[in-house]
Design brief:
Layout lengths: L1 H8 L3 H20 L5 E4 L4 H20 L17 E5 L6 H13 L4 E4 L3 H11 L4 E3 L15 E3 L8 E3 L7 H11 L27 E4 L2 E4 L23 E2 L2 E2 L1 H6 L2 E8 L1 H4 L7 H11 L2 E9 L3 H12 L4 E5 L10 H9 L3 E3 L1 H11 L12 E3 L3 E4 L8 E4 L2 E4 L4 H13 L10 E7 L3 H14 L4 E6 L6 E7 L2 H16 L2
Parallel strand pairs: 1-2, 1-4, 2-3, 4-6, 11-12, 11-13, 13-18
Antiparallel strand pairs: 5-6, 7-8, 9-10, 14-15, 16-17, 17-18, 19-21, 20-21
The structure holds flavin mononucleotide, adenosine-5'-triphosphate and magnesium ion.
Adenosine-5'-triphosphate binds next to α3 and β2.
């Protein structure tokens, strides 16, 4: 089978691991559901093209496992055995439509064309053809992947089926490594700078691939985009910015704010025997790059406490930074807690094991393999030459292994270099001191908070009798200045 052969012959260890995991998910699904009751949702996009070939390989290996070694999907002679659905829309790119049809015919794919919206189309499909599971090319980072696992039942209100996402943990790089290694055809738009394809109304080539050329605008091919997190840069946002009297609305202001949560794991901090220094440092550094820290929590060293906190924070923050409780000791429960929060199991991660064995040298024996288990299907390793061990990223949760300030500084640099923490426009901070009492300041300040919703107005005093410091933090210098002026005018008249 040519796909399986191409991957096995490749030297790309990371791709091999991703391939093995994806094929494993496909084989599990084929063992769970009769092939007549599964479907593949194919739309000619790069992710579903990857999935088409993984399904071809997965089905072939499944047949071999079942003792049918004469199956040959390598050529166009034998037909693809999984029912395939394509939701064709009038606003699809003609190149996508033609690629979808041509691919179906080249690989013997039986296409069911559905010309309804996803939900109604699936309702109709389930009535006519029993369908218990549908394979999708959804990946972590897609807006629709939020909260999904490799096997996720359809959402409440949707017809009942299992969504199977074999490439959920694949990165943009993995997708291109696969398509190029296997030398399979993909839609021509990807060679014209498109990196993620929606409809003709909301998709343009990715500006990051633009080449300045005297003969007009040109774009590099999609596989040349170095930062996969920007693959949707050519997709229009659904919401439009509202501007009100020249001042950006609260909605657009909030769009510019990224929110982080910090979780520190350690009984020793809760017992008061050790002071948590990293939390304070993280808050300071995050504020400097314009991020808003919405919560910092210290939790006990037990799996459930970590899982509960991660579960609560991962859906309300853009990023969750967790440290403490990482390693081989009985109290090192953070990774298991993250896995539990996402409802996935811990599985051996070959790539991570290699890093650990390099780090520990001869001390690394088979007994430590537990340490190389990471949350299955959702883990990405963030490497950097300065780091001995990569950072562990599970969806939007990043586990830092730093135990002291020096190690922390290196890991922070990696977070910035890998652009997991992009500067979002720094805060402008101003402060104002007054000898007025809290009672005198309370009312004018409440009015100001109301008048300047885009400025965070806080107060603190170092002693009960000393001056009161009023702090103003915002992203727009002019607005912070205006708030500052308004405060001084209001308070000086007291
Ligand atoms: C086969 C299939 C199954 C889907 N199942 C669900 C689902 O269970 N829950 C859900 O919210 N959306 C589901 N969707 C919709 C996708 O998540 C969809 O991309 C998303 O709603 C946004 O679509 P839009 O950006 O084209 O509007 C499904 C789509 C397809 C093709
Ligand atoms: N119109 C459609 N018909 C069938 N399946 C679809 C359709 N739109 C989306 N899907 C399913 O949802 C998955 C995710 O869609 P998404 O647009 O993120 O990926 P893609 O189209 O494969 O690649 P790209 O990100 O480059 O557009 C697809 O791989 C496919 O399984
Ligand atoms: Mg698409």
């Amino acid at each position: 089978m040519e796909i399986d052969k191409a991957i096995r012959q490749s030297n790309d260890q990371k791709l091999k691991t991703k391939y093995n995991n994806a094929v494993n998910v496909i084989q599990r699904a084929l063992a769970l559901y009769p092939v007549e009751e599964v479907a593949f949702s194919f739309n000619g996009g790069k992710d579903s093209t990857v999935l088409l070939h993984l399904l071809r390989a997965g089905f072939y290996l499944h047949q071999v496992d079942c003792g049918h070694s004469n199956v040959d999907l390598s050529n166009h002679a034998s037909s693809f055995p999984i029912r395939t659905i394509y939701f064709e829309s009038p606003s699809a790119f003609p190149e996508i439509n033609s690629f979808t049809y041509e691919t179906a015919s080249s690989y013997g794919v039986q296409l069911d064309i559905i010309r309804q919206d996803f939900k109604s189309g699936l309702e109709a499909l389930l009535k006519t053809k029993p369908t218990r599971a549908i394979f999708l090319g959804v990946r972590i980072g897609d807006p629709t992947a939020v909260g999904q696992q490799q096997f996720s039942p359809s959402s409440p209100g949707w017809p009942p089926f299992m969504r199977v996402n074999p490439i959920l943990d694949w990165s943009y790089r993995d997708v291109w490594a696969f398509l190029l290694t296997c030398k399979v055809p993909y839609c021509s738009l990807y060679d014209q700078g498109y990196t993620s394809i929606g409809s003709v109304n909301d998709t343009t080539p990715n500006a990051l691939l633009r080449i300045n050329d005297s003969n007009g605008e040109k774009f590099k091919p999609a596989y040349m985009l170095s930062d996969g997190r920007l693959e949707r840069a050519g997709r229009a946002k659904k919401s439009t910015q509202k501007v009100n009297n020249g001042v950006k609305s609260l909605e657009s202001y909030q769009e510019n704010i990224r929110t982080a949560s910090i979780i520190s794991v350690g009984d020793e901090i809760l017992f008061g025997s050790v002071e948590d220094q990293l939390g304070h440092l993280l808050c300071k550094k995050l504020h400097l790059i314009g991020w808003n820290v919405s919560r910092i929590a210290v939790v006990q060293s037990d799996v459930d406490s970590v899982a509960e906190e991660v579960e609560n924070r991962k859906s309300t923050s853009d990023i969750v930074l967790l440290y403490g409780g990482v390693g081989p000791l009985p109290s090192d429960v953070s990774i298991a807690g993250v896995a539990k929060a996402f409802g996935v199991r811990l599985a051996p991660n070959e790539e991570f094991e290699k890093h650990l064995s390099r780090l520990y040298g001869e001390k690394w024996t088979g007994d430590h393999n537990e340490m190389a288990k990471l949350p299955e299907g959702i883990t990405e390793l963030v490497r950097n030459e300065k780091l001995h061990v990569p950072l562990i990223k599970c969806d939007n949760v990043v586990v830092l292994s730093a135990t002291n300030v020096n190690e922390f500084d290196q890991q922070w640099e990696s977070l910035i270099e890998s652009r997991l923490l992009a500067t979002t426009g720094s805060f402008v901070s101003k402060h104002f001191t007054t000898s007025l009492s809290d009672l005198e300041v309370a009312l004018p300040l409440s009015k100001l908070c109301f008048e300047f919703p885009n400025v965070h107005i806080g107060c603190y005093r170092k002693s009960r009798t000393g001056p009161l410091t009023i702090t103003l933090d915002g992203k727009d210098e002019e607005i912070v200045e205006a708030a500052m002026e308004a405060i001084s005018t209001k308070l000086s008249s007291k």
